[in-house]
Amino acid sequence: MYDTLHSKAAVIHTWYGRLFRCLTLLSTSTACVLFNMLDRGKHKSHSRIDICITNILFGGALCLEVYAIGMMLVSYWTYAALHDCNYRSLGSLVFRSIQYFRPESRAKWSNLMAQHNLIGFCLLDKPTKLTKVLSVLGLKVHWDRWLYIRHIDVSSELKTLVFRELKDKTVSIVDAESYRKFSNHRGQWALQCKGYYKELGWSVEVEFDESILLWHIATDLCFHSGDGDDNDAKMIPHYVDISRAISNYMLFLLVARPFMLTAGIGQIRFGDTCAEAKNFFKRAEMARPSASAAARMVLDVNAEIAPRDVKGDRSKSVLFDACRLAKSLLELQPHKRWRVIRVVWVEMLCYAANKCQSNFHAKQLSTGGELLTVVWFLMAHFGVGEQYRIEAGHARAKLIVQKN
Length: 404
What we know:
Keywords: Membrane, Transmembrane, Transmembrane helix. The chain crosses the membrane at residues 15-35, 56-79. Residues 1-120 form the DUF4220 domain. The protein is an all-alpha fold. The protein has helices spanning 2-6, 9-12, 15-37, 48-73, 76-81, 90-99, 118-124, 129-137, 140-148, 156-170, 176-184, 188-194, 197-200, 208-223, 232-235, 237-256, 266-283, 291-299, 307-311, 319-330, 334-355, 358-364, 371-382, and strands spanning 112-115, 150-153. It has a two-stranded antiparallel ribbon. The protein starts with a helix and ends in a 22-residue tail after the last helix. Mean pLDDT is 80; it is low at 228-233 and 399-404.
């Protein structure tokens, strides 16, 4: 997709594109040979340095042309085009030669997912002279993204989980009504299936950006809680790692890629939540609290009274609403808790991928691609993307991809 949308590959890998590539190599080679075959006597009026520079330029041009043709020959486009050639044909011989370079095994995207953590950011982001200057220059946001956002590999376990959850959910889609329910679920279906919608459903019925922040903070609070009923991180690292990876990735999208989410006032809510968290940690008078200590401090707050009843609705902070959610989750057994958190995050990820406009998915291909875009393509393969919406009848499109 990147080659098609952001490069000349769609032209280069046509018959006339390959012809022009060969012609440019031939013309450059001819020019180089003719230049050096000129009467040597005519060169006496020219500087030897100029002649050397010209030959160096010719050499560089030839190297670039040879390299371009080599890359064209071992590209996935050529590999796919020659795949079904007759066994005894010249194309088949070229195909077998290309196989040694294994173009089909090359990564088609960066295979990375960005990570941003709210509590970690609030603990590390201290006012300094540098940050004050950057704020005046309007560069503080870019500085924060460079300093506090990191990238991790997308694990095979996470890919398998997303695939399995999508496959299980698509079975229930039989008509337009069931599709509408599927496309609008962003945690509701997971909570209903697990039997916790009555206790936790309020957290996924709010605006999507608020729901992301609530579950992100609650996931962190549960991770750092140390509730004494076996260490969750040691007991079920598989669930915990996937949950935290998606949680931090979704916060990154909310902060750095808001155009990919139906985020509403997500950045305002994030800013207010960070401000309240920083003030809370500052009042605690702890010099440098760890993430675990900070999480326990938040969990010690009495969150039975809704924060809006205390401070009004002027602030959009969700810090203590998230604390209330975390306390509800901590009442569950560790393995049940992390199963719920995990499937809710997968559902939110699929919802975000489905609702993101296609032009924004295409835009991110130029920066290495996003996990969100890969999920969007996977949903398209299952025939459940927005592009396959059917308002009437019982038919549902599905793209069948045969693996050779």
